[in-house]
Specification:
The chain is α/β, with parallel strands linked by helices and 324 residues long. The protein is built from seven helices and 17 strands. Helix 1 runs parallel beside helix 2 and helix 1 (25-36) runs parallel beside helix 7 (287-318). The protein is elongated. This is NAD(P)/FAD-dependent oxidoreductase.
Length: 324
């Protein structure tokens, strides 16, 4: 089957067993498991992965240091090699089809039918507005010390503080360097937090950041509003994570008090027939974690389809139809 399908099974009078919305590690992992289980699977991929700016990914056993795009390319090849299909596009809505399944709707009025759904649409990073910050994102402005800390170890680093949990985050970043600066607005540190930072030789710089200083396409420092430049080679920024959960919320999936869609241990949402995996439900999931969650969701979903297959087979038998 083609990797870029222009016509869906629905246009030929059938529907997919599973449509996976989102073509990252979680979605492709789910699709791979399901395709190997001989399910008809379609992956809808908008082609805008969160980690696209990163040159390499880390912490993925046997794939450490691989460019993120390479992992996705291998994943697509594996999914299509087992008969799965991948279509480039953005789903605009997920709606029940009245047959114990769903329609996946597109902006161009296409629609694809599925018995079950896996939604792996990820999250987006909301960054504070500081001139130069967004442009350096995933290069020398970083968010995950476990993903990037080793690559900038023993260099002059900084942490953009002020948010809840930023001091603890700084203490984690401290594992990778002895030269760490914590940038924070004035009067935001408690006495205990200041003592903890001083105890581990973290320099505290209080004030407002005016902009990042970049030269020869490299971060050189952080300019404060008083004109002082603090030399730094990399800056860690704990972003605000926002789930790309619009499709799930519109479908009626339950969310927690922070707005994240709730699932059971396999990724099953509150809406029967719908699973979710990866960063759309778990902001802390790394690539390897998301892939594992996609696999777990696929196994649970396939078991649910088997139950459905058994019910259908028994009903057919009761109506005198021979087993297929």
């Amino acid at each position: 089957m083609s990797q870029n399908t222009n016509q869906s099974n629905e246009q030929h009078g059938s529907r997919y067993d599973v449509v996976v919305v989102g073509g990252g590690a979680a979605g492709l992992s789910a699709a791979l498991v399901l395709a190997r289980a001989r399910r008809t699977v379609l992956v809808v991929d908008a082609g805008a992965p969160r980690n696209a700016p990163a040159a390499h990914m880390h912490g993925y056993l046997s794939r450490d240091g691989l460019p993120p795009g390479e992992l996705l390319r291998h994943g697509r090849d594996e999914v299509t090699g087992y008969g799965g299909e991948i279509v480039t596009g953005t789903a605009t809505a997920l709606v029940p089809d009245g047959r114990n399944g769903f329609w996946v709707l597109f902006a161009d009025r296409r629609r694809i039918a599925a018995r079950r759904l896996v939604v792996t649409t990820g999250l987006r990073d909301e960054l504070p507005y500081i001139p130069g910050l967004r442009e350096r994102w995933a290069r020398d402005v970083l968010h995950c010390p476990y993903c990037h800390g080793h690559e900038v170890r023993d260099r002059p680093l900084g942490v953009l503080g002020g948010a809840a949990g930023a001091v603890r985050y700084t203490q984690i970043v401290r594992q990778w360097t002895h030269d760490l600066v914590y940038f924070t607005p004035p009067d935001t540190l408690t006495t205990a937090e200041r003592t903890q930072l001083v105890a581990r030789a973290v320099t505290v710089v209080e004030g407002s950041i005016e902009q990042l200083v970049v030269d020869a396409d490299r971060l050189r420092g952080v300019r404060m509003d008083d004109g002082c430049v603090v030399p730094r080679d990399a800056l860690f920024v704990p972003p605000r994570f926002v789930p790309n959960n619009r499709l799930l919320v519109a479908l009626g999936c339950d969310v927690d008090t922070d707005g994240w869609v709730t699932t059971d241990g396999t990724g099953r949402t509150s809406v029967p027939g719908v699973w979710a995996a990866g960063n759309v439900v778990d902001p802390r999931a790394q690539v390897v974690t998301a892939a594992g969650a996609g696999s777990a969701a696929a196994i649970a979903l396939n078991a649910d389809l088997v139950d459905d297959d058994v019910r259908n087979a028994v009903r057919n038998l009761d109506h005198g139809l021979l087993p297929a």
